[in-house]
Structures are given as structure tokens and as C-alpha cells.
Design a protein that fits this description.
Helix content is 78%, strand content 0%. By secondary structure, it is mostly helical. The longest helix has 30 residues. It starts with a helix and ends with a helix. Keywords: Membrane, Transmembrane, Transmembrane helix.
Length: 105
Amino acid sequence: MEFLSHMILVLIHILLLACLCFYIIFVEKKKEPLASQGFFPTLSESPKHLKTPTHFILFFSFLLFLFLPLTTGLSLYLKTDANVLVVIFFIIWAYNWSKYVFLRE
């Protein structure tokens, strides 16, 4: 029963991420062209402009994308020793994506 509740959390996480991505692609792209300067430059500027809905949704979907391996891994390996590996993988994952998006290295 506990495994089922964790998997429901993962499914909600994935569904929310997919809905936000579809919203960005199909609705916000028509209102405000995000591709005018590119996706990653817009994403790197989004923490500075969080009061606008487009940038807030874009940044929130990026955070959901970052936390996806942590949510999935800890729901599968919560009571085992592999949860340490999941957390280490998450730290590497989040560091590399954040460095790529915000520092463009």
C-alpha cells in the first residue's frame, strides 16, 4: 500500500510536468514568444522575472524537471540502501543542469 502511494506521487509529478510543458508549448508561446531569444536564455532569465506568469511557469516546470529523478528514485528505493545513490545522482543531475542553464558552461 505504501508503494502504491509513492507511485501515485510520481505519477502526479510526471503529469504536472507534462501539463506545464504542454501549456508552455501551446498556450504561452502564442501569448509571448519564448523562442525569440531561445529557450535556455529565456529560462536563465526567468528567476529575475518571476512576477510574470510565463517566467514563473517556465521556472516552476524546470524545478519539476530537476526534482523528477529524486521523486522517482526515492519512491522506488525509500527503504533500501540505494536511496543514497539516488540522492547522489540527484545532486549531480541538479548541479549539471543548473550549471548548463544558468551559467551556460
